[in-house]
Amino acid sequence: MSDKEIIVYSGNVKEEESEEELETEPISKLTKPSPSRKGLNGVKLLTEMYEIFSPSGSEHAMATYVSTWLSEHNIEHRFDSAGNIYTKNAIEGSRRILVNAHMDTVASAPADIIMEKRKDDIIVRSSNNQVIGADDKNGIWSVLRLLTDKSVRVPLSALLCVSEESGCQGSDFAMENHAEWFKDCIFCMTIDRRGNTDIIIENFDIVLSSDTLQKQLAEWGKPFGLRTTEGSISDVSNIVGALEINGINLFAGYYGAHSGAEYTSMKDLAKSYKFQTELMPLIHNYFTANPDKVAFTDTQKSYNWNQSYYGGSY
């Protein structure tokens, strides 16, 4: 297979085939998806993904799970030779919004997942002091829901990446070899930030959104108690730089990333998803009314890797 070849999946994968593929993956723990993932839009979907051990470079089981989920929802999708997944929702049209998350984690061993019910929340964490991979399976959870949410009337494209935690290698490969697949995208929304307050409009290496859009994003975030701020490094850096569009990295309701104390607040993840669904039509309308503002090239910052901190986007 050449580096630029993409394999297309039509959405008709048989359950027994996907399980067989999972069983052959040589890692210490695998999770066979539930008999049907249709309707798994809440905590069950999330915990099934947490139970899949998918460190950088060994994302096959997670990618198989996502592929099976997309197939059961009749969503055509593609793999490139690096393992990234490309797909779209059912809404036709140009001026698409690109939604992005990554499938790999920094886990060193499988996590045993437990849920703790609080008065107004559900906390999901591990019982064996292992990384659960909320960074960034919470982002994957959001993207899968957005692709199938009938209330979303905006055309979406999606890029689900490998090897973000080892230096954004998956998104770098995608942009180097397959950027044309996103030529009709006007904005990138990466969902890969800790907590419940942040709209990242600048990373250490690159400015993600223009000054005018930054001010607009701040206004849109106020009703949710959100703030625009700076982050570290994430896949959105590669994407906006290659496509020359605006973008953000959005909070995803996880805490303590890259540690055995990592946990997710379902209340905060739901808050993120609610904001995503309200933000997308605002963004789409904004760039429809202002097509001259789609291109954003003034993105580079003075940047010294030796003086920076690469810690993903948590």
Layout of secondary structure:
Blueprint: E1 6-9, H1 15-23, H2 43-50, H3 60-72, E2 77-80, E3 85-88, E4 96-102, E5 113-117, E6 122-126, H4 134-148, E7 156-161, H5 169-178, E8 185-193, E9 198-202, H6 211-221, E10 227-230, H7 235-243, E11 246-251, E12 254-255, E13 263-265, H8 266-289
Parallel strand pairs: 4-7, 4-8, 8-11, 9-10
Antiparallel strand pairs: 1-2, 2-3, 3-7, 5-6, 6-13, 9-11, 12-13
Largest sheet: 9 strands, mixed
**Secondary structure tally: strands:** 13
C-alpha-based Rg, rounded: 18 Å
Shape: globular
| Share of helix, binned | 25-40%
* Number of helical regions: 8
Query: What is the typical, i.e. mean, pLDDT?
Result: 86
SSE topology string = EHHHEEEEEHEHEEHEHEEEH
Strand order of the largest sheet: 1-2-3-7-4-8-11-9-10
| Strand residues, percent | 15-25%
Structural class: alpha/beta
